[in-house]
Each structure stands twice: as structure tokens, then as C-alpha cells.
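Example for tutorial group B:
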């Protein structure tokens, strides 16, 4: 039986390997897919996106049940896993393909993301401005299979990537 009440959300916040696990374990999340979006090259490869010439970001597409885990809570989770003050990359990942972007697929998602960004900006939590872009979603291209569920496939390498600053950032959010 197919669930018809599912929605999707797309977030870019650095290496997609590190963006999957924080969302994957939340209630109401059906799947999290690593991929590329926001650029001008059709069906890009990892090598092309890494070159920084495609306009794409590494991103995750989250399929979720909004009755169980609303979009607003996904955005709140996103702020905890991506540094909203760094427009030139995330943690050890540098370059345009790692820029933080919330891609919306409806006017409702856009409104929620903009309100949440405004609240975060006004919270005084950061000394620097919130630079995360909020952009209309375009075609999402799933990454190659070896990138999917990377944290499960190669946990030691995932931990190495995670230790590059994101884990410390997340720890500070919880305090």
C-alpha cells in the first residue's frame, strides 16, 4: 500500500555523507537520499560536482510524513547540522558545492523556512549573520549508489568525516 501523505524536503549543508544520519533516525522519515541539486548540469557525477563547476550542491532529499514529523521540525533539525553562518562551505568541506541551502518545493515550505531563518537570526545565538539561502527546488539527482547510507556502509570513515567540526557544532547546539 502506497502512502500518499508523504512529502519531500531538500537540504544542502556540506558533505551529504554527514547530512543523512541526523535525519535518517527521526520518526516519520521514510528515506534520506544523497544527491545533487541547484546547478545547471543534467545528471551530474560526483567528480563533476566536486570540481565546483556545475552549480550543484551536495544535498539530501528527505521523504517524510508531515503528520509525524512536520517540515518545521525538519528545518529546526537542519539548523543543528549545518552552520548557517558559513556561505563558503561547511566545516572542513570548502567550496560552492558545500554551501548551505534550504530548497523549498512549495510556498508553505518557503514560508516556514523563511520564518525559521528569521527567528534564528533574531535569537542572538550567532555573532555572524545567517547566510543560508532559501531557494526553489529544482531537479534532484540521486548520487551514485556508493554514496547512499554512507554512515552505515563505512562507519569508521564516516566518523572521521564527522569529526571535522560538525560533531562539535552539533554538541554545542544541544547545550
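The residue assignment follows.
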Amino acid at each position: 500500500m502506497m502512502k500518499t501523505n508523504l512529502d519531500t524536503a531538500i537540504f544542502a549543508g556540506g558533505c551529504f555523507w554527514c547530512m543523512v544520519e541526523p535525519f535518517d533516525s527521526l520518526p516519520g522519515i521514510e528515506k534520506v537520499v544523497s544527491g545533487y541539486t541547484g546547478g545547471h548540469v543534467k545528471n551530474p557525477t560526483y567528480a563533476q560536482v566536486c570540481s565546483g563547476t556545475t552549480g550543484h550542491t551536495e544535498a539530501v532529499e528527505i521523504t517524510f510524513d508531515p503528520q509525524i514529523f512536520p517540515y518545521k521540525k525538519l528545518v529546526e533539525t537542519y539548523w543543528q547540522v549545518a552552520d548557517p553562518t558559513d556561505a563558503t562551505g561547511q566545516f572542513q568541506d570548502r567550496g560552492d558545492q558545500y554551501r548551505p541551502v534550504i530548497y523549498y518545493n512549495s510556498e508553505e515550505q518557503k514560508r516556514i523556512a523563511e520564518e525559521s531563518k528569521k527567528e534564528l537570526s533574531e535569537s542572538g545565538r550567532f555573532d555572524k549573520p545567517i547566510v543560508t539561502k532559501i531557494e526553489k527546488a529544482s531537479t534532484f539527482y540521486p548520487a551514485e549508489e556508493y554514496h547512499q547510507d554512507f554512515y552505515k556502509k563505512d562507519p569508521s570513515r564516516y566518523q572521521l568525516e564527522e569529526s571535522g567540526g560538525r560533531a562539535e557544532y552539533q554538541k554545542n547546539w544541544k547545550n
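The first helix runs from residue 17 to 24. Compare this with the pattern of hydrophobic and polar residues in the output above.
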